[in-house]
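Minutes, project check-in
Item: structure for the 377-residue chain
Input as provided by the requester:
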Amino acid sequence: MINFNVPPFTGKEIEYIREAVDNQKICGDGPFTKRCSEWIEQKTGTGRALLTTSCTHATELAALLLDIKPGDEVILPSYTFVSTADAFVLRGATAVFVDIRPDTMNIDEKLIEDAITNKTRAIVPVHYAGVGCEMDTILDIAKCHNLAVVEDAAQGIMSTYKGRALGAIGDFGCYSFHETKNYSMGEGGALLIRDESYVEKAEIFREKGTDRSKYYRGQVDKYRWQDYGSSYLPSDMNAAYLYAQLEMADEINETRKARWEQYKTLLAPLAEAGRISLPYIPEECEHNAHMFYIKTRDMEERTALIDHLKKHEILAVFHYIPLHSAPAGIKYGRFHGEDKYTTSESERLLRLPMYYKLTEDEVTYICDQVAAFYENR
């Protein structure tokens, strides 16, 4: 069976976990946590990066730092993971969904401004498949209306928009290091903070409402309860697992991109024949090969293709059910404007296997089976 995903593993993870254990510092903010944070800061140019227990928690921290309150509104695409909305709904905000672009599956930047009201506090672009949203336009809109921009860059590490790292462009950026991501610590994430004036408060929220981070740095003689907060710190053992991959980030990235390009080349004849659609990468974007997807004619064809691939020992999957059509989406949000593409495009999209150790032969076999499916239709 060719699995849809296999978590990345470089070989040094166990050695680094052992080092963390030998250091007798396996809780949060240990040596490996610091190394990971420094790596992110150097790679992206962000003001500060704080490792978290998940991208969900990174987004929750952003919502806390923005002091999102009941009655506020946040604009985001409906085609995203639930965490994008959850972080703000937990604070009492309403999720205002707008349609996506059919080419990138990202939020349609041209529809954002019409969704803004006097209750709007933030725009949350989601960089689907590690392909950047049209950030210049989004930043201009945010500046004009005095709104924050929180980038959901869960899939976007190592990707850029006009040379700028995704996650480091808006006010806050959120990364995921879940086992399905290009670099993994099992469960984990990071909050990227552009304006360093937010850092002290972020550390307090992240450390259960205390100033323990300042205590560890020797800036105060004891730490105290300063504000509300929670425990958003990952174990240093998890960070050790992640750091082994960050050390090899470029190699992992290039390997994934090679498989991505192989998919694109082998499936091009089907796309040229109008049988499927392939991913579109805008010229100003450098992607990270987080996923390779195709679009079928409709949901019925997609279901048949999934079944065909499964019979040939290939696990391919569809992706998000649009949030605005889910029970919680109806309860906590609303769709602004016409759902022209969100639902219809989501029903066509099929994700093919993509992971670090995927081989050339496996990609060739997968593409052969996709082609065989269409030969018989």
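Outcome recorded: The longest helix spans residues 249-272.
No further action items on this chain.
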